[in-house]
Amino acid sequence: MNFMNRKELIRKYIDFFKSKGHKEIPNSGLVPENDPSVLFTTAGMHPLVPYLLGQKHPLGKKLCNAQKCIRTGDIEEVGDEVHHTFFEMLGNWSLGDYWKEDAIKFTLEFYTKILKIPKEKLAVTCFKGNKNAPKDIESADVWISLGIPKERIVFLGKEDNWWGPVGNSGPCGPDTEIFFWAGETKPPKEFNSKDKSWIEIGNDVLMQYNKNEKEDYNEARQKNVDFGGGVERILATINKLKDDYLTGCFLPIIKEIEKLSGKKYKGNEKAMRIIADHIKAAVFILAENIVPDNTEHGYVLRRLLRRAVKYAKEIDLKESINKLAIPVFSVYEDYPDLKKNRIKILNEIEKEEQKFRKTLERGINQFKKFSKNKKLSGEESFLLYQSYGFPIEMIEEECKKYNIRFSRENFEKEQKKHQELSRTAAAGRFKSGLSDSSEATTKLHTAAHLLLASLRQVLKDKNINQRGSNITPERLRLDFSFPKKLTEQEIKHIENLVNEKIKQSIPVIKEEMSPEEARRKGAAGIFDEKYGENVFVYLIGDFSKEICAGPHVKNTKELEHFKIQKEESSSSGVRRIKAILEDSS
Ligand code: ATP
Ligand code: MG
Which fold has domain 6-242? Predict the structure, then answer.
């Protein structure tokens, strides 16, 4: 085994699968398109879902790539040697082309011939069968025929070796996972999948069945293979490091942490791993034009950054954590979005850090006071969350660390109480808004919907969301998420598009549905708890679809003529537009 770096590994993988007739597909964005059910891409197969379901892929039936992924669900495991929130996944796919035999052959050939991992250090798991599907003897037989001894094959149940379906129905099937012996000693003859020295380095998902709504499992018409393997773990394996953080994917960040804290990695592994992991994930999320916020993607980012700041404080990091983004840029110089957004990324990290550091010290003192008697009440935790900006997961973590009794339920009860209070306040505001449902404001309400839809279309960003609006009979003011100043030309385009939609005399239609359905249908809105059981969605042709309480005009032609008066910054990552309606004469 020769020393290999991240780029070489990826190159070797892609070249190998190309030599086996695969086409390389692009590394997709971290925010999945057309899938509001998850916040981030969690595996290479994510962008391929329509093709796994049978749609024809323009590049054919054999595909491969290296895909950037984020798994927020693994955040609590970060701190060990092998789990990260951000990682890269090698992937190869057969869309109804090759099946178990070739899939397993390719996987083993890549690991043993290309990466030169000794076969004696490998072991695999296969599906042991249940009432829905039989034991996957076929896969085990292929492994055996290729020289993996019986003692190194373990059959496990659905929790470990079964994939899918994603919803209630669809493709699903067994998988077969590959493990590498990272222990100091010679690998034991017999494979014990519970022994942590066996590290999972890859997984072939074999979509053999189709589950229908009646819970029947039938052989699938199109059988797919989906392989996924983590770049960081494979690199650690082939370089005999036993710790992903010592590979080139992390080491430059760890070294910078050592330098800026004056402390050694050894003895401070957990804190340094968390800081390095979170800063890297944050850099990649920021490169997608997401900024720290209190909902959805922005909240994940905020949590990552605040958690990094908290651990940085614990090890006395002397400078802003944004200094740690610099090595991230050099490790991932092949990602143009990082380079392009470099300055913005550095600024955003520093801003969020300053915001949090202001309250962190006082928050920690408050936390100590509150928890003197080894318990933290719902009210107290809510105060830490609300007034000191502590993400709730961080509060939970601190309580666990110091053995403090705390119930998330009580926190959530307290949170609900406050939401209800602010909801009542909002309802009050809304009432006064309604009482002013003059013809002029009603028109401007509809204009605001056309404006948001036009922003999304012209700026080519479906994720632009309303961040606030204020409408008087004279003008509308709309705050929306967008990272940079609009150009004159963009403003003109947006204005023209709104006017075009006004001219088209499109009826405005109101529908009532659950927030879940609205979200599924792609309606614009801020999906958090503030929605009740049902919401109104206003549709303007197929141009605009937005959750709103109204009121609105019956037809866009009533708006006559739309004009943008001003475009300016509102706060970080948020722009503000002021606009009016005029007689068309
Ligand atoms: P584990 O059980 O170790 O968490 P997994 O079963 O969740 O892994 P898969 O969903 O099969 O993993 O993903 C495919 C591959 O991606 C894994 O074999 C592993 O190499 C890598 N991988 C998965 N999760 C992570 C993570 N959080 N950090 C780094 N690599 C990961
Ligand atoms: Mg996992």
Answer: BirA Bifunctional Protein; domain 2 (3.30.930)
